[in-house]
Amino acid sequence: MNASVQPILSGRGLVKRYGRVTALDHADFDLYPGEILAVIGDNGAGKSTLIKALSGAVSPDEGEIRLDGKPVHFHSPMDARAAGIETVYQNLALSPALSIADNMFLGREIRRPGVLGSWFRMLDRTAMEKTARDKLSELGLMTIQNISQAVETLSGGQRQGVAVARAAAFGSKVIIMDEPTAALGVKESRRVLDLIRDVKARGMPIVLISHNMPHVFEVADRIHIHRLGRRLAVIKPSDYSMSDAVALMTGAMKPPADMAAA
Amino acid sequence: MTQPKTASTPSQDFESVLSGSASEVASFEHPGKTFLQRGREFLHGNPAAVPLIVLIVSLVVFGVLVGSKFFSAFSLTLILQQVAITGIVAAAQTLVILTAGIDLSVGAIMVLSSVVMGQFTFRYGLPAELSILCGFAVGALCGFINGFLVAYIRLPPFIVTLGMWQVILATNFLYSANQTIRAQDISAEAPILQFFGQSIRLGGAVFTYGVIAFVLLVFLLWYVLNHTAWGRHVYAIGDDPDAAELSGVRVKPVLISVYVLSGLICALAGWALIGRLGSVSPTAGQFANIESITAVVIGGISLFGGRGSILGTMFGALIVGVFALGLRLWGTDPQWTYLMIGLLIIAAVAIDQWIRKAAA
């Protein structure tokens, strides 16, 4: 990566301890504009804690997170969202009984203009449904016929699509996706990967957490390998094989000297 | 989602067969659906339909069995009068149950509020209007305590409100010294306390202000629950509080506001209770919490939260009223009413479980 390009989201020396367990041990992190950065690591390597720190779900004990070069301190996922970082959680964080449009706008509803909105707090369903439909169409998701149907009537892939569309609609700086293909079948995974590329094509940098090596190697520009609470190496998928990545991740292979600082 | 775009290059061999697989992701109208499945989906989308159908059927059945004595404007509006108090309390209960909670203290809050309204006027000589405001404040305070314990101390709503039920009821008896304020005194000195007992007559039909308040309240809450962000948040919290939190709902403040609003509505029920009884009695409304839960359950609101319509609650309260009056006019032992209501509760929950399967 060109040294003159500033990372859009970075972490330096992040530490998070849970009692006697150190989940993050002076971990670093860099996400550059317009790229898909995959984060991989063995179970317990601390990658979830890293992601939680970046998405505001966890406050690190030490270290600094910078967004666009400016230090930020997130105390809740809401803070991170307000700063332009949207997260697609593994459990999707959708309310099954609510409609697609209601879910997309949950927590940031649009109200009707004029007295209806200010006095009667009436929701502008028309505007919300139109935006929701537009966002889903942009991502090629419009086989969903009825935007007001409940999310629980959708398939797993469609729900994932709604969650991604929500993140893409509101994320202005970074989108974090936690295991977006873990619960999906082959065909649906394929669609979600296409969706990730579509989002990237619109210039949005993405952090992708995944256990699925083929998926990681297919879409990622760079791969952040997390091991024992810190960043072990950052590799380009074109330079390494999947088994190398797994070997690095599990400690079977030592990182090359020049990679450790990358 | 559309078919994989030409730009996408499958990275795994087994994916090459995907081009030959079915291209539609979602087709929502399966032609092979049975009538039963379609019915279930309709009910899933319209949760108040079941209680409405039951209400209409029971009206027709009792109309046929009992005849004009039942099917008169007077009798039908009498049902409304009899369910108005329970209905108002059930509206409060609905809000709490939609968040996957339960409020066992609704009846106690109602009675304490009515006692405060009466005693503040007669014991301290406050203007009745001010006493009524104090009654609402007490209702809101009780609700706030419930909400705080549920949202911030994270105690189960059942336990919190079970405890508060006892605490509030005991406070009510201690404070009122078991004293009833007589109806004559109220109508002579503070008639506004009996405001909801006044009525409008249209022919044989009698609509008390309490009935009108009940119906208006239900429609107001229906609007709030369906057409404001707050209402959508109430449903989202009942559905899945963690998901709601992550997607940006401020769960704790919303939960508190639900319990406070529930307390305020109970205070309104307390005021309407004075209108219905004429007097202020600390022993009134003993069964209001159970009756309100009955109306909510028969109204098709899921006790697991997040599902149901407040219109269903109104129909549920009316169904109870129709059975009670219908069976009495038909000349049966009143125990048959309880038996039928018991069966209705079990049937309502069974139907709720069945409808939920439509989502799968």
From TrEMBL, chain A:
<dbReference type="GO" id="GO:0005524">
    <property type="term" value="F:ATP binding"/>
</dbReference>
<dbReference type="InterPro" id="IPR003439">
    <property type="entry name" value="ABC_transporter-like_ATP-bd"/>
</dbReference>
<protein>
    <submittedName>
        <fullName>Sugar ABC transporter ATP-binding protein</fullName>
    </submittedName>
</protein>
<keyword id="KW-0067">ATP-binding</keyword>
<dbReference type="InterPro" id="IPR003593">
    <property type="entry name" value="AAA+_ATPase"/>
</dbReference>
<dbReference type="GO" id="GO:0016887">
    <property type="term" value="F:ATP hydrolysis activity"/>
</dbReference>
<keyword id="KW-0547">Nucleotide-binding</keyword>
<dbReference type="Pfam" id="PF00005">
    <property type="entry name" value="ABC_tran"/>
</dbReference>
<dbReference type="InterPro" id="IPR027417">
    <property type="entry name" value="P-loop_NTPase"/>
</dbReference>
<feature type="domain" description="ABC transporter">
    <location>
        <begin position="9"/>
        <end position="253"/>
    </location>
</feature>
<dbReference type="InterPro" id="IPR050107">
    <property type="entry name" value="ABC_carbohydrate_import_ATPase"/>
</dbReference>
Automatic annotation (TrEMBL), chain B:
<dbReference type="GO" id="GO:0022857">
    <property type="term" value="F:transmembrane transporter activity"/>
</dbReference>
<keyword id="KW-1003">Cell membrane</keyword>
<keyword id="KW-0812">Transmembrane</keyword>
<feature type="transmembrane region" description="Helical">
    <location>
        <begin position="336"/>
        <end position="355"/>
    </location>
</feature>
<feature type="transmembrane region" description="Helical">
    <location>
        <begin position="48"/>
        <end position="66"/>
    </location>
</feature>
<feature type="transmembrane region" description="Helical">
    <location>
        <begin position="73"/>
        <end position="91"/>
    </location>
</feature>
<feature type="transmembrane region" description="Helical">
    <location>
        <begin position="97"/>
        <end position="118"/>
    </location>
</feature>
<feature type="transmembrane region" description="Helical">
    <location>
        <begin position="254"/>
        <end position="274"/>
    </location>
</feature>
<keyword id="KW-0472">Membrane</keyword>
<feature type="transmembrane region" description="Helical">
    <location>
        <begin position="310"/>
        <end position="330"/>
    </location>
</feature>
<dbReference type="Pfam" id="PF02653">
    <property type="entry name" value="BPD_transp_2"/>
</dbReference>
<protein>
    <submittedName>
        <fullName>ABC transporter permease</fullName>
    </submittedName>
</protein>
<feature type="transmembrane region" description="Helical">
    <location>
        <begin position="158"/>
        <end position="175"/>
    </location>
</feature>
<feature type="transmembrane region" description="Helical">
    <location>
        <begin position="130"/>
        <end position="152"/>
    </location>
</feature>
<feature type="transmembrane region" description="Helical">
    <location>
        <begin position="202"/>
        <end position="225"/>
    </location>
</feature>
<dbReference type="GO" id="GO:0005886">
    <property type="term" value="C:plasma membrane"/>
</dbReference>
<dbReference type="InterPro" id="IPR001851">
    <property type="entry name" value="ABC_transp_permease"/>
</dbReference>
<keyword id="KW-1133">Transmembrane helix</keyword>
